[in-house]
Design a protein that fits this description.
TIM Barrel; eight-stranded parallel beta barrel; two-stranded antiparallel sheet; binds (5S)-5-amino-3-OXO-hexanoic acid; binds zinc ion
Length: 275
């Protein structure tokens, strides 16, 4: 690798709202399972845990008490992890419920920067709600991660940042490969990155088969990486992954082999600007 790059921040999206146990039997659902998955992921090299919660029957939930249970369980096992709660929830969740867990004042939360078709559904993010969530995050001292599924959402983010709506420094997550958003072809990632002012941090979450190639490109391009069962349940074609940690461990290994260190949670806090 040519220039020395900053350490790689690996985020692990351990559960998500769409993945089911029938397709991925190792999906962590309960707070205890999520805590174990988070601990294993952090040991394997993750520093950020992107967190959705489920009820015991597997239904996606935005219940504050459930988030608190999971956060407490994760903290007990792996206090150093950066916990990033989802304000996206599941498609169709009310904006009120999506916002409520921000009251727990996590270090980070996702902030979805626009509306898109999401498979057969519509993932609605009204401009008024984006601004409302951003304001709450500022008020509670929560660092937003800007979830951007196509290039217009990157431009929207920069426009909102210019008028002071977003807490800075900006931290982008390019989510590529959702049917309805931009695909995970390399040209799309390159275009997204080209829109950013110098020095702005970005990561990529490649959905399904895009996860591994986009992660490898991000490692080489100086970006950061998200993996996990929310985005991809396979280790390789047709082979279901054993654990979230298995996916993290591969990324950490590839990064180190390519000469790029993997960030500890403390290093990630500094890079993201939450410390
Ligand atoms: N479940 C997706 C509809 C986020 O966490 O903020 C949205 C999502 C994004 O997962
Ligand atoms: Zn999510």
């Amino acid at each position: 690798m040519a220039a020395k790059m900053e350490p790689l921040i690996i985020t692990c999206a351990i559960t998500g709202a769409e993945t089911s146990k029938d397709k991925q039997p190792n999906l962590p659902i309960t707070p205890a399972e999520q805590a174990l998955a988070a601990e294993e992921a952090v040991k394997a090299g993750a520093s950020v845990i992107h967190l959705h919660v489920r009820e015991d029957d597997g239904k996606p939930s935005q219940r504050v008490e459930r988030f608190k249970e999971s956060i407490d369980a994760i903290r007990a096992r792996v206090p150093e992890a950066i916990i990033q709660i989802s304000t996206g929830g599941a498609v169709g969740e009310s904006i009120e419920n999506r916002a409520k867990p921000l009251g727990l004042k996590p270090e980070m939360a996702s902030l979805n920067m626009g509306t898109l078709n999401f498979g057969d559904d519509v993932f609605l993010n009204h401009p008024r709600d984006i601004v409302g969530l951003a304001a709450k995050m500022k008020e509670y001292g929560v660092m937003p991660e800007l979830e951007t599924y196509e290039a217009g959402m990157v431009e929207t983010s920069l426009r909102l940042a210019k008028v002071g709506i977003l807490r800075e420094p900006l931290h982008f997550q390019f989510v590529l490969g959702v049917p309805g958003g931009m695909s995970g072809e390399l040209g799309n990632l390159i275009h997204m990155v080209s829109l950013l002012p110098a020095g702005v941090h970005w990561a990529v979450a490649g959905i399904g088969r895009y996860e591994l190639p986009l992660s490898i490109h991000a490692i080489l391009m100086g970006g950061h990486v998200r993996v996990g069962f929310e985005d991809n349940i396979y280790y390789s074609r047709g082979v279901v992954a054993r654990s979230n940690a298995q996916l993290v461990e591969r990324i950490a290994r590839i990064s180190r082999e390519a000469g790029r260190e993997v960030a500890s949670p403390a290093q990630a806090r500094k890079l993201i600007g939450i410390q």
